[in-house]
Amino acid sequence: MRERRIALLGVTGSIGRQALEVIDATPELTVCALASGSQPLDKLAAERGVEHVQVGGDLTDVLEASQPDVVLNAVVGFAGVRTTLWALEHGVALALANKESLVAAGELAVSAWKRGGGLLLPVDSEHSGVFQCLEGRARETIEAVVLTASGGPFRNHSRDDLESVSVAEALDHPTWSMGPKITIDSATLANKGLELIEAHFLFDLGYDRLDVVVHPSSIVHALVRFRDGAMLAHLGQPDMRIPISFALTYPERRATPVSTLDFSEALELAFEPADPERFPLLALAREAGERGGTYPCAFNAANEVAVAAFLEERIRFVDIAALVADALDRVDGAPAADLSELVGADEEARRLAAGRVATT
Ligand code: NDP
Ligand code: MG
Asked: Which of 22, 73, 94, 132 could share a disulfide with 98, CB 3.0–4.6 Å?
């Protein structure tokens, strides 16, 4: 493998820090640019001799300046949209953790990807698993993709119990250690909803061929069903360093420090259906995806506002879904012709959701 210069966007986050570990363990990977939202990066940049650094603002500036071989987009939320589009448009390999950008800008992103012709490698563990199960398969043999969900900390909570869960309880994820926004999304299953839409755009599959199953131990990350009835599964420890390394070293699949599954101990591989009554955000995301246009963008925007309000203890856990449903009812969902129209749709949904937060 030749040297790969990586622009690491969101370096101060959960994915960003784990990506630094992967990069340090792989001699051919070097960091050419670092970016965060607000935390200063001077010390980190000096330690590593990284010349190109940006804190906040339009992060395509640091990409233009550093001309990376790979963009690892590990920014959280819609803030990652411009850099996702930049990498796809320029045909620069994109290792994508920032699922919100693909959800919100799906159609614009796919067009940019087609024009740019570069690699789009999912970092999200389920999509990395799907990508690996699909590699080299003839398209007509693929019937469906099934994404697994841990079910989060409230898998066995009743609807009544969910009314009173605290922020601390929602942040206590049973299997994955992640940043706060995605941890709340995992507790509401909005994360799996975002992932359905992400899979639709990544793998060009209709929503009728995308399914979700709850799998509490998070060992099976994804399943692909073929037309002969066979399924392939992707298994591994729930450790993001594996999909990060896969994306950054593709197609070489370099070694990682992560241990493999230990079959000398009993291993739980249970599956159960997701409950749409207690976790309405999953169905809301699917519906937004099916309606298309800027509905996925609005779903994401309203969800970001609602999650932030929940983390600030301004609304209850169950209000998150109600806020998103309300915003989706009120936006027009018209397709965005360009980035400025998409930003407009994002802002409109945020405005509606923020209005509801204020009156909740
Ligand atoms: P964190 O909250 O831990 O980190 C977020 C990162 O984004 C920080 O570096 C933060 O910088 C940066 N950031 C926030 N706002 C902006 C902005 N406006 N402009 C530029 N940078 C910004 O999140 P995670 O690492 O958990 O998640 C990152 C992405 O990866 C999300 O899209 C998530 O869905 C996805 N993902 C995460 C997984 C995980 O295991 N954590 C698994 C699968 C996907 P600062 O510190 O300065 O605020
Ligand atoms: Mg995931």
From this structure: 73
Query: 196 and 219: one domain?
Result: yes
The CA radius of gyration of the chain, in Å to the nearest whole number, is 20
Nearest to 182 by CA among 137, 134, 125: 125
What is the total count of domains within the chain?
Answer: 3
Separation of CA 359 and ligand 2 centre (Å): 32
Of ligand 1's listed atoms, the one at least distance from the Cα of 77 is: 32
Q: Which token pair is 189?
A: 């299953």
Residue nearest ligand 1's atom 21 by CA: 37
| Element of type H or E holding 146 | strand 142-149
For residue 13, the ligand closest to its alpha carbon is 1
Ligand 1: nearest atom to the Cα of 57: 19
Helix (H) / strand (E) element for 30: namely strand 29-36
Taking the mean position of all CA atoms in its chain, how far away is CA 155?
21
Ligand 1 proximal residues by C-beta, below 6 Å: 10-16, 35-39, 56, 59, 74-76, 79, 97-100, 124, 176, 178-182, 240
Ligand 1 atom with least separation from CA of 182: 34
pTM higher than 0.90:
yes
Full domain range(s) for residue 71? 4-123
Contacts 24+ apart (CB under 8 A), 348-352: 348/298, 349/297, 349/298, 349/299, 349/300, 349/301, 349/302, 349/305, 350/301, 350/302, 350/304, 350/305, 352/302, 352/326, 352/327
Index of the ligand 1 atom closest to the CA of residue 17? 25
Considering the domain architecture, whether residues 350 and 273 belong to the same structural domain is answered as no
Q: Which of 75, 126, 175, 181 gets mutated to test ligand 1 (max ligand atoms within 8 A of its CB)?
A: 75
CA 271 to chain centre: 22
Cis ω before 251 (30° cut-off from 0): yes
Specify whether the CB–CB gap between 360 and 319 falls below 8 A. yes
Domain membership flag for residue 248: no
pLDDT tens digit sequence for 149-204: 999 999 999 999 999 999 999 999 888 889 999 999 999 999 999 999 999 999 99
Among all ligands shown, which has an atom nearest to the Cα of 37?
A: 1
